[in-house]
Amino acid sequence: MESAESNSAAAGGKTQNNSVPPVEGVAGGGTSYGWVDGGLQGSSLGNGAIDPTKVHSADLLHVWSMPSTANVSQQEAPRQLEHVNLLAARNERESFQIALRPKVSWATSGIAGSVQVQCTDLCSSAGDRETSAIWVSLNVPCGQQPGIYEGEIFITAVRTETESRGESLTKSERYQLYRELRSCLDITEHREYSSSEEMVQNLTSASTTLRRMLDLPSFQDCQESNGLGDMMDEDIMNNVAVRLKLSLTVWDFTLPLTPSLPAVFGIGFVWSMAPKVGMTHLIITSGGSFNTESVRFSADGEIACEFWHTRALGLAKEYYSDPRLAAYAVPYAPILSSTDSAKNSLRREVEILKSEAHWSKSYFYLWDEPLNVEQYHVIRSISNELQSYASDVRILTTYYCGPSGSELAPSTFEAFVKVPNVLRPHTQIFCTSEWVLGTREDLVKDIVAEIRPDLGEEWWTYVCMGPSDPQPNWHLGMRGTQHRAVMWRVWKEGGTGFLYWGTNCYEKAMIPSAEICFRRGLPPGDGVLFYPGEVFSSSHEPVASTRLERVLSGMQDIEYLKLYSSKYGREEGLALLEKTGMYFGPDRYAHDHGPIDVMRGEVAIPEKEAAYNLQHKWKVIVMNP
């Protein structure tokens, strides 16, 4: 979208730092996020082989919880294990993290050891004396009864697969076991006994044979289990597991099925395009023109590339009518619009769409960041063509400057504010770059003053490349609250929608499992919010980044603020942001998670007080961070 050179000038000369990119969710952390850097004592176990089934896991590894906005580094210092208390509305997804750091090594394969999170059947291998994190998300159904729900997560150190194989029976032991079992079977098989004494003698011989088998070295652990041998493996693991207690308060509010703020994200058609992605509440749609192709995101999470023709109409209607979908870009290719066949195809497309109830969600994205008078003229020309097909068609235009070569204002930067006067009535959604706005909230007021809601006009914003630190964006290495604050900024500025240029725009690869490389010239992580599953395992399902999870959390924060404002007025909602210390402006916002919980608690208190206690075991979903 924007070039680095042009945006650097628009942002007051700021440039991006293109040093070695940090790892997803690793940069930062520690005391910079408001956590007390209080290391815990290590293990008192001596050197030598350690059997994790005989030692409590608390003696083998540190376990503690951290909020979803924390970037957990490998050098993260251990903290005390405390209960996790969460607050969530119905139809909300609330997340936190479990941090793990080994005290000693209990494996022999060059790693510290393996860890199993029992309730999810997820195994996580931690590096030697490095901190690893597990992302945990709770999805609250729309019909969930308000109340307090409690549960536990069990974290257990386990033997590695190679160690388990190494402890299997040797060839000589297997041969001995086979002979003994064969002998025992021969003795006990049905036969005619000449006397009761002969029968007793054979049974005694069988008993002796079975005892010899139990004395084999491979069964020695069972003899030393002190009564645990009669317990199930699951019970044994729970007996030595570190237990993390959780409490979830579900309050009497349901997040709307359709997001209050339309957030549109572009998806690129590259080799690493993932066939499936699961999201709750957040709908990812096409953010630009893909010729006659559209991106389908259905209720079951399937993404598929569809061509606009009769066979696809049923699937397209299902997708566009999905109540979770707040907005979608109608496929359009300006380069083909000059031909009669292209115009006829476009006319048929518009006629079909405008007869449907979901037509109000649609918009056309005709041109990305026009720069001069000629490009603005093209937008007006295409808009006239579309308006001849449907008078209520909506056009979205992104821009970060005014048209050069015009007499609109003395400079292109000053003309930036006056763009609505140039494109009216040929654009209904004016989408401006947050990079250009910088920290100038007075400029925001000037832009909003030019928008005409009475004519159906809207003001959206977008981020692309910039802005850089300390302003909110989704670059790698930024704070977790900085990622989440992108949506706080949109709400405070009064935007009615948001656009992000790409979610899987890494360098193209020949195969999906190729190493992920970010595009040259872009800040680390820019345009990438999820990764192809093939890079990490044999799975074809994409892996959500922690930044993508924080996008959803930020959108859910908007629903809280919107509810509060509906009761007490928008001015009180804005005051709540500052009173809780969560967000003051693009360069002043919370650096730790505490103010977020305070804000959410302030909104939920009236309903929360009416909640009743309810003991309930709930399912925990663990996602790869």
TrEMBL record:
One Pfam family named in its UniProt record = GH123_cat
- Regions of biased composition (Low complexity) lie at 1-11
Q: Per the record, which residues fall in region Disordered? A: 1-26
The Glycoside hydrolase 123 catalytic domain, residue ranges: 352-563
InterPro entries, A to Z: GH123_cat
Q: Which PANTHER family match?
A: ALPHA-1,6-MANNOSYL-GLYCOPROTEIN 2-BETA-N-ACETYLGLUCOSAMINYLTRANSFERASE (PTHR37193)
The name under which this protein is listed is: Glycoside hydrolase 123 catalytic domain-containing protein
Identify the species of origin: Leersia perrieri
